[in-house]
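Exam review. A common question shows you a sequence with its structure tokens and asks you to describe the fold in words. Practice with the pair below. Do the first one on your own.
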Amino acid sequence: MSQPVFHLSITVDPDSMTDFARQVLRTRHVPLRLVIFDCDGVLVDSEPVANRVVAAELTQLGWPMTGEECRVRFLGLNLTTMVPLIEAELHRALPLGWEPHLEARLVTVLAEEVELIPGAAAALAETARLGLPWRIASNSSHAELRAKFGRNGLGDLVAGRLHSHHDVPHGKPAPDLFLAAVAAESVAPENCVVIEDSLPGVRAAMAAGMTCLGFCPDDDGARLMAAGAAPFHSLHDLPMLLRAALEGTE
């Protein structure tokens, strides 16, 4: 069952944004039993690093691109989904072995450079403190996920909670990743809240029938809101928002 798409307007003021998200969560009529986090752009600030690497590889192939252009074109997409888009632009097939080459390059650079989003570690700790199980569902590979969290000392914490697009038939925007996460916890989709920052991620959550919070630290969240997410500005607000969801079903 798809979640409703919001057609309300909010100001760019972060407090107004967070108040709206809190109101949405308070209207939930089913218990909250699982929180699913996206990885890139929600917990780990990997997108600038990954975009730089991908842009350099595409430029070398003959498609000149900056990191920002890469972000705009491919935000939230997995590499498997990107390949036909790249080949269509190049008007030729990618070199044999290019996809594993790029994945290996990403793993190396991410393990050396990537940092956590401010408030990410505390958000995971506070979610657990509220008694809520949590999982991570990402369009990244398991090797990339291990590199990102291992560099930041969270490898042991996230072990056994990671879902990669390689685990399911289709990555985001299909609902498969989120449905795999709820199946692992033996809960229903309606008992879940998803934390996402991209349109493919929000669309996946909507297709899975889950409430979605749209993390948007750098804009007003209008695009995520139009897709069905309730936007919020800071991970430091997440524990308060989750408490609102819990209180709404008490």
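Now try the second one, then compare your answer with the model answer below.
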Amino acid sequence: MSAFAASSPMPTRASSSKSPLRAFAPFEGVGDEVYADAHARLVQWRKDLGSSASFDAQQDVRELSHEKEHLKDLKSDLVGVQSLVGVAVQLQVGGTKLAEVVRSSTEAATTRAQSVARVRDELDRVRDSHSQELQQEERTVSRQMEMADAQHADSLKLLGVYKERLGLEITRVAPQIVRMAFSLMDNSDPSRVFFFTLGLADCEDKASEGYCVRECTPPVPELQKLVEELNADTSSTAALPRFVCLIRRCFIKMAGGKEVA
């Protein structure tokens, strides 16, 4: 039963009961017994009417109480529905925020992917460029090695000529130190050896870098001056050969011989 039914007026069942006096029409000559019986019926009718009215009232009260309970249930359901509506609204708002977060994350991931792609393309380009440069360097080194081998072969031939005509012999006695020996200088003793050891100054814990002569036999008076001139002109590729030639001339002068062209 709805709340609207609870507010409608209740019909009184006792109102349909008719008074027993209506069955007796007034007329003359009616005896006392008849009136006594009518009175008894009237009393009984009033009792029945009161009982019926009381029953109907109790029934209406019970129905009204039931409607109140039903109304409470409806109110409770309404509160629950309102709570569900609030939760639904929050879920909708949360869903909107989540969708925005997902969209932002997707855009950020797309941007990162594009950045990674650009970096990858740049790395590929740099790798290809370096690969080409490396191949070019390898070709250059290969050509330089070929040239160096050719120069080394020419140098060996030249040293062979020097050894045969000038008695020059170059040997390595220590790291960055060589021994240069000359023979065929003393006419009285062609096998006599004149030599000096040439190395770098820093390999002997000297303060300054440059060439140094640790041993010279026989001693050359001009040796210190010649070494200083050599170190003052280290940028020239002809400085070292000129130094060797000057030392040889000093050896020839000391031997009393003459220089062989």
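Model answer, second protein: Strands lie at 169-174, 177-182, 194-200, 211-217. The helical segments are 3-7, 32-166, 223-232, 239-255. Full marks require stating both points clearly.
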